[in-house]
């Protein structure tokens, strides 16, 4: 991967050449590992088949028209491949992608600097775009709509508006919270797509692909066992492949089969639903302290000494999708399925007074 050096002095942005993808520095995970295994084309990108089909058509149409791509918004829980698909889009269009995230665009000059350094056709990827501040958003509106940068100079009475033309670029925004995007910003995206959780079969394919790249010996059943406990999320599946492989090498003969996978995942305290200690603690706490709920998210976060955002973005989406937790107007509630999963008897819905 050729990362072009930032000789324009831009901070907080990863400039990447044709398809390699770099994660924003604000998010902590193993970018080297993720980048090594990231698919670079639609064929090696597993899952999200409806999204892939529509994107292929959009890309082909843009190529035939000789125009830049419409701005795109990808939303969905973390780890489902929003950055990855943006990288695939860039690679398929044969253009460079510049990757940053909203929290890194704090000052107006951050976003202005990036916009002014873009080249025609380039893709600007902004992760966590729902966290963009008002000023940055307002700079983005004319940039997205007319490819201009509207700047005001001078004092109030003598202020002049300067319109600086920008090259035609494509903005790809990614968010875990589409609902938190302001409507003017959301309306400026021509293409809005939701990424879905992966099926066990799809995740097993992701696991096998990653194992092959990392030269890890794995059986079909071993891949499936890891897939089942990966919470529908390729990022988790990939992380588990690596961890289980460590066990396979140290405790077994190096191969990941069903027994090795289950043994390792049990030791890692990842249960057959893919829940870890934090998820189980969350459900247990709501049951023990709040009779199963409903209870507000702030209370849950405080009781677990966790950040509200971590609960909302990382734990909750899968617990809701798996039907273990329910969202009600009065807060979160553990579902009957959630009680069953923890092996706790559910109090009857109504207590008789007699
Ligand atoms: N790694 C992360 N997401 C992936 C996907 N959708 N397909 C293949 N490998 C992946």
What does this structure look like?
This protein is α/β, with parallel strands linked by helices and 354 residues long. Helices cover 45% and strands 13% of the residues. It contains 14 helices and 10 strands. The chain has a 6-stranded mixed sheet, with helices on one face. A two-stranded antiparallel sheet has the order 5-6. Strand 9 and strand 10 form a beta hairpin. Helix 7 (200-213) crosses helix 9, helix 8 runs parallel beside helix 10 and helix 9 crosses helix 10 (258-267). The protein is globular, with a radius of gyration of 23 Å. It starts with 13 loop residues before the first strand and ends in a 12-residue tail after the last helix. Adenine (ADE) is lined by residues 37, 39, 45-47, 81, 84, 206, 209, 234, 238.
Give the termini distance in whole angstroms: 72 Å
Please tell me what the overall shape is. globular
| pLDDT averaged residue by residue | 90
What's the number of helices? Answer: 14
Which hetero compounds are present in the coordinates?
Answer: adenine
List the helices and strands and how they pair.
Elements: E1 14-16, H1 31-37, H2 49-65, E2 72-75, H3 82-93, E3 97-101, H4 108-117, E4 123-127, H5 134-146, E5 148-153, E6 160-165, E7 170-175, H6 183-187, E8 191-194, H7 200-213, H8 220-228, H9 234-251, H10 258-267, H11 277-290, H12 297-304, H13 308-321, E9 325-328, E10 331-334, H14 336-342
Helix pairs in contact: 4-5, 7-8, 7-9, 8-10, 9-10
């Amino acid at each position: 991967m050729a990362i072009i050096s930032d000789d324009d002095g831009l901070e907080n942005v990863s400039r990447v050449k044709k398809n390699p993808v770099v994660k924003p520095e604000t998010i902590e995970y193993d970018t080297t590992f993720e980048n090594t295994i990231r698919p670079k084309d639609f064929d090696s990108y597993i899952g999200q088949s409806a999204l892939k089909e529509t994107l292929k058509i959009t890309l082909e149409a843009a190529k035939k028209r000789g125009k830049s791509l419409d701005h795109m918004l990808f939303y969905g829980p973390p780890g489902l491949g929003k950055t990855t698909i943006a990288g695939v889009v860039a690679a398929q269009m044969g253009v460079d992608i510049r990757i940053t995230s909203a929290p890194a665009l704090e000052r107006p000059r951050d976003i202005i600097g990036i916009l002014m350094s873009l080249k025609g056709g380039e893709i600007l990827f902004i992760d966590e775009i729902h966290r963009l501040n008002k000023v940055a958003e307002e700079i983005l509106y004319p940039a997205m709509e007319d490819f201009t940068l509207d700047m005001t100079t001078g004092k109030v009475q003598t202020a002049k508006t300067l319109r600086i033309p920008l090259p035609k670029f494509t903005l790809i925004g990614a968010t875990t919270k589409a609902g938190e995007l302001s409507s003017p910003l959301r309306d400026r995206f021509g293409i809005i797509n939701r990424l879905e959780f992966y099926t066990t079969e799809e995740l097993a394919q992701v696991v096998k692909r990653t194992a092959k790249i990392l030269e890890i010996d794995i059986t079909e059943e071993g891949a499936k066992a890891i897939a089942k406990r990966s919470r529908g999320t390729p990022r988790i599946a990939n992380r588990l492949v690596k961890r289980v492989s460590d066990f396979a090498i140290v405790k077994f003969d190096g191969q990941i089969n069903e027994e090795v996978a289950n043994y390792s995942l049990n030791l890692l305290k990842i249960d057959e639903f893919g829940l870890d200690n934090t998820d189980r603690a969350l459900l247990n706490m709501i049951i023990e302290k709040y009779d199963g709920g409903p209870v507000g998210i702030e209370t849950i976060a405080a009781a677990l000494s966790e950040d509200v955002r971590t609960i909302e973005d990382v734990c909750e989406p899968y617990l809701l999708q798996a039907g273990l937790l329910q969202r009600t107007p009065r807060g979160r509630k553990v579902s009957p399925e959630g009680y069953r999963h923890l092996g706790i008897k559910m109090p009857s819905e109504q207590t008789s007074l007699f």
